[in-house]
Design a protein that fits this description.
Layout: H1 9-20, H2 29-34, H3 44-54, E1 61-63, H4 73-80, E2 84-91, E3 94-102, E4 118-119, H5 123-137, H6 169-173, E5 187-188, H7 196-201, H8 225-239, H9 243-252, E6 290-291, H10 295-298, E7 301-302, H11 304-318, H12 328-334, E8 347-349, E9 356-363, E10 366-373, E11 378-384, H13 389-403, E12 412-414, E13 429-434, E14 437-444, E15 447-451, E16 458-462, E17 467-470, E18 477-482, E19 488-495, E20 498-503
Parallel strand pairs: 1-12
Antiparallel strand pairs: 2-3, 2-11, 4-7, 5-6, 8-9, 9-10, 10-11, 13-14, 14-15, 15-16, 16-17, 17-18, 18-19, 19-20
Helix pairs in contact: 3-13, 4-13, 5-8, 11-12
Length: 506
Amino acid sequence: MITKVPPVIFVILVVFCILTANSNFPPTNTELVESPRPSFSGAKGVNVRVKRVENGLLRPVVFRGQPLTKLSLADRMQSYKVPGVSIAVINGGEIEWARGYGIKEASGRERVETDTLFQAASVSKLVAAVEALRLVEQGKLKLDENVNDKLRLWKVPENEFTKEKKVTLRGLLSHSAGVTIHGFAGHSINSTVPTALQVLEGVPPANSPAVRVDVIPGTLWRYSGGGYTVVQQLLTDVEGKSFPDLMNVELLRTLRMRHSTFEQPLPKRLWPYAASGHMGSGEPVEGKWHVYPTMAAGGLWSTPSDLALFAIEVQRAYKGESRKLLSASMTRQMLTPQIENWGLGPTVQGVGRGLRFSHGGSNLGFRAFLVAYVETGQGAVVMTNSENGENLIDEILRSIATEYNWPDYRPIEKVLANVNPKVYQSYVGQYEFAPNFPLTVTVENNHLYAQLPVNPREEMYPESETKFFLMVPGVPEVTFVKNGRGDVTGMNLFIEGRNRTIRKLP
């Protein structure tokens, strides 16, 4: 489980040159990727900051009484088996620098550049949400109307959960519409790829169940890629265009995001510019990457520099300094928590100087994250071509936060407890993290570990005999629950302000 992530003279000149190199936005993605590679790191002062970021990576937890250990990006990439990383840093409302590190594919020689394409995964939702809000401002959609009023080729099936409360765009964008399907596995590049309509109905070649409502809309926050697939169909029905054409022309062109596309599958002419995804073992994904017809939920190919331009525009719109995408009032509504800490698209956290919006992304072989501070004009986008990229991204963000004095993303101080390892045996077993998705707890060499099916094993560090934490993004805390006889019956899991109890399986 996881969750605001946008001026020296040379920077202004470089950005100006990039934006005006072709005053008519390239009509094809071939021209799009052939434009000059951006470079935001020429000033000596900026290069010094870059070096400090590269050598200042931090783990999420600092143990009381132990010195702060700073790590190098090169070492951490090797440790996590992450072949390639791309970073863009926003400062003062501009892209201050962007760099690529490593290689596009393990065992290959092509280096990651600032224009190397990565799968943005669920960061796509944030971009799709802005386009939906644009249509609201144009009067083509309403946030609180029944989406079935505008859907044409497919309708949200009515049932007992939708008798009184209907599925709305507001609910879909904030993951509170009661819609099923957390995320999508995508499809092998050589397989038959379903249409969005087939995905919504859960019919072959779709590899996920039908998208349905199984909770009364508006009563529960629950992350739903299925909900954003409904949004995708809604936008295409209203505009009468394919989703890639709608997004590429109406939004990406507006922001001159020259190295971004929602086309799925990725056209072969763009393959030479794309990074290959990698499994946690370090091996490339079979066929290099998966295809995602659920484009609004996770189909964007992009670069940190392009996504930084997007984040900066949201920052400017919030302040009333631009209306390229949205008005100030709509942007403020977008960045107002609707349910828990979720706005209309992004996670929204903090107040004042610390007000930020963010979104992470996780596709097979790729991890990405965008965070931007509204008031300060700061932020960053980090993209990797590895299943192990999440932890690395977290460490990179802490380094950037330290260098640029962000109000958040600092290590948490913890005190380790001295616990008899014999206690750990009673915790061993499987816990129902989600239906058919167990969290497995094991013991090895007197250390306790937790692992989800798609994640690497992580050590659980003791704060007491029953309370532990994991040194991963969000620093989740686990408290084991016992019955009156002392038997372990489950665990309380606390992460990012949310607390849930999961039972131990027999």
